[in-house]
Each structure stands twice: as structure tokens, then as C-alpha cells.
Write a structure and sequence with these properties.
By secondary structure, the protein is of the alpha+beta class. Strands 1-2-3-4-5 form a five-stranded antiparallel beta sheet, with helices on one face. Strand 8 and strand 9 form a beta hairpin. The longest helix is centred in the first third of the chain and has 47 residues. The radius of gyration is 37 Å and the shape is globular.
């Protein structure tokens, strides 16, 4: 049997403790280094994720925000063009608008094509120039007064669509119960309306508000039933054909308004007696009146709605 002295035992014990301490420190260092590596790897992964992740910004749908998407331009001689916006893009202070253009000649659709215009604004923001893409033509300088005014009104509507302060805050009209009414496609012919069996899907109509009913009553059009057809609805103008049912007679009265103020009115049709008076409203806002109800009738009188919304003799 081997014996150790107290000093030898103490020495052996101390040696063993130092050895355990060294082993523990080595294990701790290995674990610490491993944790740092794992942590660094996680940090690198996080940084890579931040660097590579695409930050998605909400896009404004200017076409959807646009309250009035179309306007009509008269080109004279029985010619009218309807510009319908079908795509709107914005870069800085420039809007690029793609239109489908429907051309009508003598009331018939004669051509359809696309045109793209660039709308440039200054810091006001006010329209500065309107350029037909692919040319240097500035519509503000080359178009006739009526067409130029239509483009300017559209440009004002366009800039409002891009303003978060004004979006969906346009002033509600005072005349019909509808926020964004659907328009009757022009030409609007009573003969076609009659043949279509007064189709409400093709000829949408709206309830009148008290202000307009009171106006009609004050002008001798008291009745049991009123309904309004919209033929123009844009930022400034609202043109309505009002059906007024009184007894066996139905009157049709054209009413023009601008900025919620009535500009003019005129009776354009009367149905219910032996000599009905019917009408047709062309895309150029020329109104033809006929004796009788049939196709290819000769107009006995013609009127037009001018640029101010007044109804004048053609």
C-alpha cells in the first residue's frame, strides 16, 4: 500500500483543482467563441435580409382616383370626339395619360384610336403645357378654344386626383341623388330610348333633389314624377335631361348647371298627345327636335349647348 503525506495530498489536490479550472476555462472559451460566431452569423443574416428585402411603397391608382375620366371635344362639321382616359401614370410633376378616342361623324361612330398626352404642371400647380406624345405640339397653343378648355378642365381634375387633401372630397352636386352618376351615351335619341323599352341599364336615371324639383315647379313643371338622365358630368358642368310625368303627358326638359348653379333650361320633348315632339342629343351637344317619333326624321329646330352652358339656337 502506498501512503501520501498531508503535503503531498494537498499538492495533488491543488494540482487537480488547477487542472479542472483550466479544463473549465477552455470549455468556457470554446462556448463563448461559438456563441460569438453564431451571433455574428445571425447579425450577418439580418443585415443581408435588410439589404435584400424590397421595401414596398403603396402606389396611387390615379385612374381610380380620377372623378371624371372622359370629356367631349367638338371638331366641327358634324364631328365630335370623346376622350376616355384608360391609363394614368405620374412622374414628378408630369402626368402621362393614355386616352381611347372615339370619333363620331354625323352621329355615327366612325373611328376609334389611342392617343397619349403628357400633362406638365408648374409649382402652383397649374397646367403649363399639354404635349401629344411623339410630337412637340402643345395642345394649349394649337387647339381651338373649346377643345383647349376641355383639356384644361381635365388637367384640373387630374391634379386633384393626385392630391391626398382633395381626394374623394369633391363638392356633392345639389340636383340629383348620386355621388358619381353614370352618363347616358350620346347620341341620346328618344326614338332609340322608346325602342329599347326605356331600358334603365342603357339609360340610367336618378332621383331629383328638392332644389331642382322646386326650380322646375317654379317654372310651371309641377308633376307627380321626376327622373333625371345625365348627359354630361365633370368637374364643373352637370347637364341633365329631366323626364316630367304629368297625367298622360311626359315632358323632357334639358337643364344645364355649372359649379352647382343652374345656367339654363329648355323643353326639348313632349309625349302623350297626337303630335309628339321628340329629340336627339348629339355628342357635340347639339339638340335636334322632331315632329313625331321615328327614324330618319328631319329636324324642325336645332339648338346647342355653348361653352358657358347656355342653350342657344344652332
Amino acid at each position: 500500500m502506498v501512503y501520501f503525506s498531508v503535503f503531498e495530498v494537498s499538492h495533488l489536490s491543488n494540482t487537480k483543482m488547477r487542472t479542472n479550472k483550466i479544463i473549465f476555462l477552455n470549455i468556457f472559451m470554446v462556448l463563448l467563441i461559438g456563441c460569438k460566431k453564431a451571433s455574428n452569423a445571425q447579425n450577418r443574416d439580418l443585415l443581408d435580409t435588410v439589404k435584400t428585402k424590397k421595401i414596398e411603397m403603396p402606389e396611387t391608382n390615379y385612374l381610380e382616383s380620377l372623378q371624371y375620366k372622359s370629356f367631349v371635344v367638338s371638331c366641327g362639321g358634324g364631328c365630335a370626339m370623346t376622350y376616355i382616359a384608360n391609363n394614368v401614370e405620374k412622374e414628378n410633376s408630369v402626368f402621362k395619360v393614355k386616352f381611347t378616342v372615339e370619333m363620331y361623324t354625323n352621329e355615327q361612330l366612325s373611328d376609334t384610336y389611342n392617343e397619349t398626352y403628357l400633362f406638365f404642371y408648374d409649382q402652383s400647380p397649374k397646367i403649363n403645357k399639354i404635349i401629344l406624345k411623339g410630337t412637340k405640339n402643345n395642345a394649349l397653343e394649337t387647339l381651338p378654344n373649346g377643345a383647349r378648355r376641355s383639356f384644361i378642365e381635365f388637367s384640373e381634375n387630374l391634379i386633384k386626383a393626385s392630391s391626398s387633401d382633395n381626394k374623394n372630397k369633391s363638392e356633392e352636386n345639389k340636383f340629383i341623388v348620386a355621388k358619381i352618376p353614370k352618363k347616358v351615351n350620346l347620341p341620346f335619341s328618344f326614338y332609340e330610348y322608346f325602342n329599347d323599352d326605356y331600358s334603365e341599364s342603357k339609360y340610367p336615371n336618378y332621383e331629383l333633389k328638392p332644389l331642382l324639383i322646386e326650380f322646375l315647379k317654379n317654372n310651371s313643371y309641377d308633376a307627380e314624377t321626376y327622373k333625371g338622365f345625365v348627359i354630361r358630368s365633370d368637374e364643373n358642368f352637370l347637364y341633365l335631361v329631366i323626364s316630367i310625368l304629368r297625367g298622360d303627358s311626359e315632358y323632357f326638359v334639358l337643364v344645364t348647371t355649372k359649379n352647382n348653379v343652374i345656367i339654363d333650361y329648355k323643353e326639348i320633348g313632349l309625349i302623350g298627345d297626337e303630335n309628339p315632339v321628340t329629340f336627339k342629343i348629339l355628342p357635340s351637344f347639339i339638340i335636334e327636335e322632331y315632329h313625331g317619333n321615328g327614324p330618319n326624321l328631319k329636324a324642325f329646330e336645332k339648338f346647342k349647348i355653348n361653352e358657358e352652358g347656355k342653350i342657344v339656337k344652332e
